[in-house]
């Protein structure tokens, strides 16, 4: 039985300066790779055979199978353990005939149809990908992403009841390996079954590493470790009554717990967001200093990441904060402000989503459309509409299912989904749209609620309703946006102090079946 946990696709092209391939492979073997592939595109057949013989001897010493990329002739010449082929190579059925039944056959797949064909043609495993963008090769088809990968796993494991093994490939590294493992998992609650990938394949995460042995170890440990971050997909209450019961106590818990909320947010809203955080009973800290992220991550109840005034340095810091928060199981609320306004922001949004697990994604329709469809869906940082409320619900559900996280789309009606359960919250007031920063500061309240409530979906619904009700109360008392701001902060801070039943009576929620 081959163990596909950590599959290295090795190639001379991506080595660090001064390091030779055999040495790097030796480190990777010492670090614990479980499968090795030799992928050489630029060398002669004779050189490929020579190299393959050396690599095979090395791999045998660690009992690790050697797969040859693309070249059936080289694989047969050195008697390697198997061959890996892509969609543009010799067809899998012919390769199977040539190599016989005992050798390993791997096939690259990007769609369910390709997986189906690979299984029918006798593949032992499929490489699913590219799952994310990769620097290693120019992709001819777009990355299939977490959602595409899940579809393929589901097909392989469930529909076909097949013994085929699955590994994901493309852009996988230490920062996202856990996300890949857990977010591609398929749960069948009624049968208590879970299907997961059998492993991941990487090129640069190991082959370009300055310390290949320890990076290999770290990748393997991360794969085998329990889940980082919180993915509480089973906690979502199933009906409106249980949801309302659960959200009723959340504002009070924020006040009692006084969680620290680390904000990496935009310059326009820092002051307002800090005041809103204080008003709900949490403690804000605004810091973009990378040197204190480790400490803050250990101390924080939640992290708010807001892309409003993004720059290159802040992007780096945010990526590091994502990594640390996931490691420390600190929930992250991600606000992709202006995601589609420029290529820079669209790319950063993608990079954030690929780099780790975001527990909540909060955006307006334009931002969420950008997450779903890429750049081109919005103008500047202002939102555009995706159509009817039904369209908005579909948008939120689609992203939530794809990213396996809670998604909130703000607007006249706020739509919140965790992919299994969707609610529309109609609390709020149009004056919120006349005060800058009110959208961003909602992120602070969501983060405060997530810090005290494990069930991220309920925490998010509580925050959205709480915010909306405070806005309704404040708007009723004031004359315009100027006087609204202080009154809003007052009302926000008073919700916990009022009777739960009083604030709950104002909650305007509808559950979408
Ligand atoms: C494990 C694994 N999965 C996918 C690939 C990609 O193979 P292919 O589609 O043949 O592309 P090239 O590697 O030839 O560029 C792989 N090599 N390994
Ligand atoms: C060979 C291949 N096939 C699909 S993505 C990929 C390259 C993966 O490289 P990396 O792990 O460095 O992103």
TrEMBL record:
Superkingdom classification of source: Eukaryota
Cofactors required: Mg(2+)
Annotated keywords: ATP-binding, Kinase, Magnesium, Metal-binding, Nucleotide-binding, Thiamine biosynthesis, Transferase
A cellular-component GO term for this protein: cytosol
UniProt pathway annotation: Cofactor biosynthesis; thiamine diphosphate biosynthesis; thiamine phosphate from 4-amino-2-methyl-5-diphosphomethylpyrimidine and 4-methyl-5-(2-phosphoethyl)-thiazole: step 1/1; Cofactor biosynthesis; thiamine diphosphate biosynthesis; 4-methyl-5-(2-phosphoethyl)-thiazole from 5-(2-hydroxyethyl)-4-methylthiazole: step 1/1
Domain Thiamine phosphate synthase/TenI: 6-206
One GO MF term: ATP binding
Known catalytic reactions: 2-[(2R,5Z)-2-carboxy-4-methylthiazol-5(2H)-ylidene]ethyl phosphate + 4-amino-2-methyl-5-(diphosphooxymethyl)pyrimidine + 2 H(+) = thiamine phosphate + CO2 + diphosphate; 5-(2-hydroxyethyl)-4-methylthiazole + ATP = 4-methyl-5-(2-phosphooxyethyl)-thiazole + ADP + H(+); 2-(2-carboxy-4-methylthiazol-5-yl)ethyl phosphate + 4-amino-2-methyl-5-(diphosphooxymethyl)pyrimidine + 2 H(+) = thiamine phosphate + CO2 + diphosphate; 4-methyl-5-(2-phosphooxyethyl)-thiazole + 4-amino-2-methyl-5-(diphosphooxymethyl)pyrimidine + H(+) = thiamine phosphate + diphosphate
GO annotation, biological process: thiamine biosynthetic process; thiamine diphosphate biosynthetic process
CDD domains: THZ_kinase, TMP_TenI
Family annotation (InterPro entries): Aldolase_TIM, Hyethyz_kinase, Ribokinase-like, ThiamineP_synth_sf, ThiamineP_synth_TenI, TMP_synthase
PANTHER family: THIAMINE BIOSYNTHETIC BIFUNCTIONAL ENZYME, THIAMINE-PHOSPHATE PYROPHOSPHORYLASE
Similarity field: In the C-terminal section; belongs to the Thz kinase family.
Function statement: Condenses 4-methyl-5-(beta-hydroxyethyl)thiazole monophosphate (THZ-P) and 2-methyl-4-amino-5-hydroxymethyl pyrimidine pyrophosphate (HMP-PP) to form thiamine monophosphate (TMP).
Protein name: Putative thiamine biosynthetic bifunctional enzyme
